[in-house]
């Protein structure tokens, strides 16, 4: 008998859980621990270690030890010679063409992630005493389509069928929600090793509905560790004249010391840090770092957490006073400065009776229980984090699905041909929040051919987006007159980089006014060109009809003014001229109808 388990494939640590007697429980690894470090190490003799053993030997083997693979998923591959940086920091490359080379052998982020998942699977099978072939796997809320696919690919390599991908903050809400009977509005604050996600959810009657998500895909515990490492390096250099940045081994050791000091300062006002004698030239070198110094060194990082949280509340239409609970997820939420910020924004004391390092995996197990049929009173409604659409005439972004739309979902819009007698339409699929296509992220492109040749604006092309429960996107374009169609399954290689997602949201907010004005200018130009074509057609019909000469003359003058405005490129002038032409054409059309009616009457009288 097989059982679906829940897996939190984390940046720093990974965790597995399962449902037992209607409650989620952590599956301990073979070392008897709940957390498995997301670390993979390679020996010269081809042996491989995953988890605690891999982390323990990292200082002695830094260039063959891979940390934070999840954080690199979606990031552009570093230039040649950056191998040391690759090894020390790889979750954002997932879904990219990045390759990590160790001892002449190439590994992708999918390969490394699969190794971590293999261990979780093996340990779960040993603990449960049965096969484990299916899993609910969690991903950051802001993982894009390519990164989600890559996560599924990694699971497949590990021999796991991913029955559902669940956003990490949503999974946390599922874990907490089992204890909630009445309706609640909660904010999930998820600050892990590599990313920061905020989700606003409404829970009630077994329904978990995500109202909004936001976050910072380039901020997490790793960044705090880097600041602490820099602080310690400076202290050891000043007090003991020891350079801890001189070698890969000392830099790896420095990061380990930094992580331990950060954790200690979450409960203590100061932390003594002792350097191993081998790195202190045989001397016992020790420095003391205070919580105050650490908070000062990371103040700007903590400040960056505020904007996404407030944006998520605004997108959900929720005032902080309307929140019933704030749920903390991720080890970084133990940091006092982070907790103070949460209290300042929400006015609530964080609700944290579940270990923040384990809550995501527990929530994944809850969803696994739902899919296995063991839990029938829970319904999960997630959302898509960014808008989806295609490029339209004038280089505009035509939205088909708005951000924060509940998934799974299917939406479609009708588009038309941009040129006369066009038989092929290029569909440029985009994701983002900017008004111009060029400012958004390309998910893929494809062509729909065999369209019936028609005048510009006459073809009817339906573009349908389908997002499944895992957040994976399918796009279908159909010529409604010939039923010719073309479908695209967005591939990882063409997916947007993960860093770009958070940047897209930030930039869209910063450029909202200028984007709106630019869109209005382009739309005014398109409308003006359409009016000119209509004017040419109508003036042709008016030629030789004496009773409409006055109206035709006015329309001709107005059309000339529109052409002049288009040549000048001023959006406001184009709009004014186009409005005048539109009024003239309405008057001319009315005159033509009156003339036609008069001629018809004359014909009947004859």
Account of the 3D structure:
- With 606 residues, the protein is α+β, with helices and mostly antiparallel strands.
- It folds into four domains: 4-219 and 304-381, 2-Layer Sandwich (Nucleotidyltransferase, domain 5); 221-302, Actin, Chain A, domain 4, CATH 3.90.640.10; 388-510, Substrate Binding Domain Of DNAk, Chain A, domain 1 (Sandwich), CATH 2.60.34.10; 513-605, Substrate Binding Domain Of Dnak, Chain:A, Domain 2.
- It contains 16 helices and 27 strands.
- Strands 1, 2, 3, 4, 10 and 11 form a six-stranded mixed sheet that branches. A six-stranded mixed sheet has the order 17-12-13-14-18-21. It has a four-stranded antiparallel sheet with strand order 20-19-23-24.
- Helix 4 (145-157) links the parallel strand 10 (134-139) and strand 11.
- The longest helix is centred in the C-terminal third of the chain and has 35 residues, at 571-605.
Comma- or semicolon-separated keywords:
606 residues, alpha+beta, Nucleotidyltransferase, domain 5, Actin, Chain A, domain 4, Substrate Binding Domain Of DNAk, Chain A, domain 1, 4 domains, 6-stranded mixed sheet, 16 helices, 27 strands, 39% helix
The chain-level mean pLDDT equals 82
Query: What level of helicity do the residues show?
Result: 25-40%
Dominant shape:
elongated
Q: What is the rounded Rg?
A: 30 Å
CATH H-level superfamily title of the largest domain: ATPase, nucleotide binding domain
Which structural class should the secondary elements be placed in? alpha+beta
